[in-house]
From TrEMBL:
Keyword annotations: 2Fe-2S, Dioxygenase, Iron, Iron-sulfur, Metal-binding, NAD, Oxidoreductase
Entry similarity comment: Belongs to the bacterial ring-hydroxylating dioxygenase alpha subunit family.
Name the record gives this protein: Rieske domain-containing protein
One Gene Ontology MF term: 2 iron, 2 sulfur cluster binding
PROSITE patterns registered for this protein in UniProt: RIESKE, RING_HYDROXYL_ALPHA
Pfam families assigned to the protein according to its UniProt record, in alphabetical order: Rieske (PF00355), Ring_hydroxyl_A (PF00848)
């Protein structure tokens, strides 16, 4: 099977189809781990998670267990979390602070810079000379890069520099990070880890899918209506200038990234950044009117292949780890600018619990839909789904009033009515998927 051919992308004919095997075939899944996750940049953590020397967190890139540490010298390093002796994971914890990591099997020890500092009873002389000539340090990832406190790593050296990889998607990280006076973001303590019985690309698509909102989250929409009734008349719409046209849009970037966003007049006091008018004004002075306006707009950013950052009534960082063709592990964090007021942080946490958290009113709806899709994909004789053409007729290139406000040059953009919800913003991820598979095929790997 020529895996890259499973995506039929003919923009001139307005055809975009995906073979159902992309979501269920074990060979496709194996190729994805090897030639996508283990061959490109992955988000692995925030610098603020390891703010002090010897801090560490553990994560994964594809199948590879990863140990991300700040060395005693303050330098950040990411290593394969596997002992050089017989392969045991060196650090079995999620996070902490340790100067040394001692392997639990035979006691080899590594420092926080990844250097081997002790081999148990090496001096007793049982090792041959060939052993002494080998390097015993932890194996670093091939590439490590960071942007505004977001750390990325690649197991392959064959990747563009991190700034090129992120491209103008960086602007949407800036819009979050610049909400902090110190230019730093942090995770609110605690995280939810959960699995769903579906393919990881269901999460990838859903984070860019505004079309599903009113149906999948209808119970949440009903609750919002009831809350609005009990809240009484709205206390002014101040998040957007009066003449701004409400609507929804998306920008698509190179290397698989895309962002969905919406312009909606909402009550400022419902947003962490708007809850404290004096602070909002200070941010406005610092970043300018246009950026401050965009900070208050809903933005759902997807950085291919494993990161989504959403900034609405709260902010969320979602990452995923593909476990099997039909199983995905999710990790969800509440993201916050460092230094926000107590009122803003409280509102952020309450809104996060309400909507984003695994126990909230949204994530569980989505997870059920992923599992329904996964089951439906078993109907392999049904052919490709029709789920990739909504909005395809409205895709534009070049500049718009919105790209000019942000100073970005997306590959494609769309903007429509509040009911817009296009699906063409899935294309960049799938085009990057296909590029990486084609690259592997050229190297005769698949
Ligand atoms: S496997 Fe780590 S010391 Fe033996
Ligand atoms: Fe959803």
């Amino acid at each position: 099977m020529a895996i890259s051919k499973l995506i039929d992308d003919r923009p001139d004919e307005a055809i975009f189809q995906i073979d159902r095997r992309l979501f269920s075939d074990p060979d496709v899944f194996e190729a994805e781990l090897r030639y996508i996750f283990e061959a490109t940049w992955n988000f692995i953590g925030l610098e603020s998670q390891i703010s002090k020397p010897n801090d560490f967190v553990t994560t994964n890139i594809g199948r590879h267990p990863i140990l991300l540490m700040r060395g005693t010298d303050g330098k950040i390093g990411a290593f394969l979390n596997t002992c050089r002796h017989r392969g045991t994971i060196v650090c079995p914890f999620k996070q902490g602070r340790q100067k040394f990591h001692v392997c639990r099997y035979h006691g080899w020890a590594y420092d926080s810079n990844g250097r081997n500092v002790s081999i148990t009873e090496e001096a007793s002389g049982q090792y041959p000379r060939s052993f002494s000539n080998e390097n015993h340090d932890l194996i670093p990832v091939a590439r490590l890069g960071s942007y505004r406190g977001f750390i990325f790593a690649s197991l392959s050296p064959d990747v563009p520099p991190i700034d090129d990889f992120l491209g103008d998607a960086r602007t949407f990280l800036d819009l979050i990070v610049d909400q902090s006076d110190t230019g730093e973001v942090e995770f609110v303590p605690g995280a939810s880890t959960y699995t769903f019985d579906g393919n990881w690309k269901l999460q990838f698509e859903n984070g860019l899918d505004y079309y599903h909102f009113s149906t999948t989250h209808s119970s949440y929409v009903d609750i919002l209506k009831k809350r609005n009734v009990s809240a009484g008349p709205e206390a002014g719409f101040t998040s957007e200038p009066e003449d701004e046209q409400e609507g929804q849009g998306s920008f698509s970037f190179d290397y698989g990234h895309a962002v969905n966003w919406s312009i909606k007049r909402t009550q400022l006091y419902g947003r962490p950044l708007g809850v404290d008018p004096a602070r909002l004004e200070a941010v406005r002075q610092r970043v300018g009117n246009a950026r401050a306006k965009w900070m208050l707009r809903q933005r759902n950013l997807t950085i291919f292949p494993n990161l989504q950052v959403i900034d609405i009534l709260s902010a969320q960082v979602r990452t995923w780890r593909p476990v099997a063709p039909d199983k995905t592990e999710m990790v969800s964090h509440c993201l916050a600018p460092v230094g926000e007021s107590t009122a803003a942080r409280t509102l952020r946490i309450r809104n996060y619990e309400d909507f984003f958290n695994a126990s909230g009113l949204a994530s569980s709806d989505d997870n059920v839909m992923y599992e329904f899709c996964q089951t439906g994909y078993e109907a392999t004789t049904a052919g490709p789904t029709q789920g990739y053409l909504r909005g395809a007729a409205g895709v534009s290139r070049g500049n718009s009033v919105h790209t000019r406000e942000l100073g970005i040059n997306p590959r494609e953009w769309s903007f429509g009515a509040p009911s817009f919800g296009g699906e063409a913003n899935f294309y960049p991820g799938y085009r990057e998927w296909r590029r990486l598979m084609e690259r592997a095929a050229q190297e005769a790997k698949v």
